[in-house]
Every structure is written in structure tokens, then in C-alpha cells.
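Friendly challenge for the regulars: who can give me the C-alpha cells for this chain first? No prize, just bragging rights.
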Amino acid sequence: MESIEKAVAKSLLDIKAVMLRPENPFTWASGWKSPIYCDNRRVLSYPAIRENICRWMADIINEKYPDVEVIAGVATGAIAHGYLVAHMLGKPFCYVRPKPKDHGTGSQIEGILEPGSKVVIVEDLISTGMSSLAAKNALVTAGADIMGMVAIFSYNFNNARKAFEDANVELTTLSNYDALIEAAHEIGYVQESDIEVLKQWRFSPSTWGK
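First reply, four minutes later:
Bragging rights claimed.
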């Protein structure tokens, strides 16, 4: 039976939520050159894939965090996914803005979050991990007890893994960059000659292609 990691990777490639283009790299907002572009919002437009991905995340949460009380999504990419997971689990949902809004109540967390609530965070994508951990810090400031974080995909950057370890946050992802490269090779999405180039990028993304 195909692993969830591989199944998710193939689904993301199939719907072009992830695109690999080593011969003509993308430019990220940070200025980094990248052979990969990931937009997991596209998952929302494909009901069967959306159902599978959110169900797998819900199953992980049920198994690892049976005492969870609230699901929190990280804005904006994981709001919809987080809500769907919360709905499947029958749990309250809230989401975390990147920063407090500059009008109205000035809230950073939208929805009800009682102090002391056991929270699992849902993310769509983990790159450096900084925005995800900033959301975690906002939830902690609001009194949440963070049990862990579940995400669709991670680039598997070494600095991100270290950041989560240092923050003492358990991260579980459905799929990752290594599984993606393997799946892309299996289905002929990339050639053998591209594999080493794609692997090199992950170890030094800020200087790759320069």
C-alpha cells in the first residue's frame, strides 16, 4: 500500500499545488531562487483530494492528541484546512493572524479561545517555520496549551527542524520535500539529471542558483 507521504506528494503534483522547475527557477518573495513552488490552497478546489488530506490530518490528531479541545489554523493559508479538520473532529476552531489587526478589537486570534485550552495547530506549509512558530507564540500568550502542530507539507529545511525542536513543538507533516522528489521521479515529472540539483537546493536555499 502506498504511504500517505507519497500519496499526498503525487496529489499535490497532479493538481499543480506543487510545481518543480529546476531548469527555470521561481523567485520567492524573500528573493530566494527556488526550483519548487508550493500553493496548497489549490487543494481546496479538488473535493476528493481535499477530503483525503483533511481526513488524514484529523486522523493524526485523533491518534496523537486525543485530548485536544481546540483546532487553530494559521492565516491565511491554513484557515480553510484547519476549519475542515476541526469540523471532522467536532471541535471548536479559531485562527491566528500574522499580527493583531489595526482596527476594531485589535485581535490577533479570531474565534473563541478559553485560557488553558488544549490546542493543536494546523498549517498548510512549513518553510523556515518562523510564521508558524509566531502563531504558536500568539496562542501561548492568549493562554493556550499547545499540544502540537500538523501540516500538509514541509520543505524539510534543517533550520526549520531546529527551530521546532528549540521551541519544543512537535511537528507532524503529511508529506515533505524528500517524498515529493521521489514521487516526482517515479511518475516521470522530473528527469534523473534533475534529482541532484533538487536535493542540493534544500541544503542551501538562500544561496542556491546565485
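Residues 56 and 78 are 15 Å apart (CA to CA). The first strand starts at residue 18 and ends at 20. Your move, everyone else.
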